[in-house]
UniProtKB/TrEMBL annotation:
It holds the Pfam family T2SSE. Gene3D superfamilies: P-loop containing nucleotide triphosphate hydrolases. It comes from Xanthomonas perforans. Belongs to the GSP E family. The gene is cpaF. This is Flp pilus assembly complex ATPase component. GO terms for molecular function: ATP hydrolysis activity. The lineage of its organism: Bacteria, Pseudomonadati, Pseudomonadota, Gammaproteobacteria, Lysobacterales. Residues 1-72 form the Bacterial type II secretion system protein E domain. SUPFAM superfamilies: P-loop containing nucleoside triphosphate hydrolases.
Length: 146
């Protein structure tokens, strides 16, 4: 099911229900990281529903891909991605409301196909697709690109 933008409580609730009943659901959110995507989904719900939503999300989430479009060296644009896969560790962090710890799990989860935006930015700089300045503008840890 392609939902499009998940912009309100009703849409997010329907998407979660569909995912929980076994449907593959794709949706978009305007956030800058995988962790912020999780926070945004949960924060839309009233306080009394948040534990249930965390549980639903932790059981149904397959992946979050966050992207930024950057100017390429020589013109054009290229995408930089942060990829978070719904591993048991990530699912537990969502369930336990420890979203702030996700970044380190993504950082060390390369064997599962995960990468932080900073890791992909480093790769794009190494391949001379973007400049260090362009990478620094989007990086979480700006010191990497000094």
């Amino acid at each position: 099911i392609l939902v499009g933008e998940l912009r309100d409580l009703e849409t997010i609730r329907l998407a979660l229900t569909a995912a929980e009943t076994g449907h593959l659901v794709f949706g978009t959110l305007h956030t800058s990281s995988a962790a912020k995507t999780i926070d945004r989904i949960i924060d839309v719900f009233p306080a009394g529903e948040k534990p249930m939503v965390r549980s639903m999300l932790s059981e149904s989430l397959r992946a979050v891909i966050s992207q930024a479009l950057l100017k390429k060296v020589g013109g054009g644009r290229t995408a930089a991605w942060e990829i978070m896969v719904g591993t048991p560790a990530i699912r537990n962090l969502i369930r336990e409301d420890k979203v702030a710890q996700m970044y380190s799990s993504i950082q060390t989860g390369q064997q599962y196909g995960m990468q932080t935006l900073d890791q992909h930015l480093q790769d794009l700089v190494k391949r001379s697709l973007i400049t260090r300045n362009q990478a620094r503008e989007y990086a979480k840890d700006k010191r990497i690109f000094e």
